[in-house]
Amino acid sequence: MTARTPATPTIKGTTRLYAVLGDPIAQVQAPGLMNPLFARLRRDAVLVPVHARPEHLEQIVRGLQRVENLDGMFVTVPHKVAVRRLADRCGPTVDIVGSANVLRREADGSWLAENFDGSGFVAGLVGAGHDPHGRRVALVGAGGAGSAVAAALLTAGVDRLSVYDTDTAKLGALVTRLGAHWPGRVRALTGPQLGDIGIGIAVNATPLGMRADDPLPFPLDSLPPGCVVADIVMKPRETRLLREAAALGHPIHHGIHMLEGQLNSYRVFFDLR
């Protein structure tokens, strides 16, 4: 029997466009999830990767916003904070966390920014049997994705969230913003050592792990037994952090679950039925 190959999108003059922006871009997984979704829904649409360097981001976004058959943009590293100011309006999550991972063209031609990284991450955790409710969680990375994940974990009812980032100004700003919404449940860590706080879930929300020679975002030797080690890096699937955590007997949680957890939110946000 001949194996079936995935259906190739048929690009026509009527095709609606979506773009995913990042630097680098080769690691993005969104086209592999969204294009099959468009096909299943019989939508005449395609999502394509766009390599946008930080110094060119505004020019690229402004240009794409003027493409009449482009309905939305997905945003990945390192643009999630910067892209917020390029939208006309922001959803409530963006206002809290200060970053966006998706933009939608509105009926009047304006652009709305929203962030589903955090809700997608939590949905993936819960789906894998790692419900964060009532647990102590440590998060390394206070950037665009990390900020969204932090807010979603607090919304999901974590008992205590401890956050670390090498950028102390960024870390302090995030803890202050989160503390205004969830007083007494967030604290900043002075270093990446996480094992002394009784945590049940440790999360890497930095880009460390995308390259083979990246250092670990946090040491594993002091984590308590049974602590779940989660990564938001999607490619490679098995980062060094996850490989070494699994070798030590820790349950691990892959980055692709964060994107998979966002699919339903994207369907609603872009009205994909």
Automatic annotation (TrEMBL):
<protein>
    <submittedName>
        <fullName>Shikimate dehydrogenase</fullName>
    </submittedName>
</protein>
<feature type="domain" description="Shikimate dehydrogenase substrate binding N-terminal">
    <location>
        <begin position="20"/>
        <end position="103"/>
    </location>
</feature>
<keyword id="KW-0057">Aromatic amino acid biosynthesis</keyword>
<dbReference type="InterPro" id="IPR046346">
    <property type="entry name" value="Aminoacid_DH-like_N_sf"/>
</dbReference>
<dbReference type="InterPro" id="IPR013708">
    <property type="entry name" value="Shikimate_DH-bd_N"/>
</dbReference>
<dbReference type="GO" id="GO:0004764">
    <property type="term" value="F:shikimate 3-dehydrogenase (NADP+) activity"/>
</dbReference>
<dbReference type="InterPro" id="IPR022893">
    <property type="entry name" value="Shikimate_DH_fam"/>
</dbReference>
<dbReference type="GO" id="GO:0019632">
    <property type="term" value="P:shikimate metabolic process"/>
</dbReference>
<dbReference type="GO" id="GO:0009073">
    <property type="term" value="P:aromatic amino acid family biosynthetic process"/>
</dbReference>
<comment type="pathway">
    <text>Metabolic intermediate biosynthesis; chorismate biosynthesis; chorismate from D-erythrose 4-phosphate and phosphoenolpyruvate: step 4/7.</text>
</comment>
<dbReference type="InterPro" id="IPR036291">
    <property type="entry name" value="NAD(P)-bd_dom_sf"/>
</dbReference>
<keyword id="KW-0028">Amino-acid biosynthesis</keyword>
<dbReference type="GO" id="GO:0009423">
    <property type="term" value="P:chorismate biosynthetic process"/>
</dbReference>
<dbReference type="Pfam" id="PF08501">
    <property type="entry name" value="Shikimate_dh_N"/>
</dbReference>
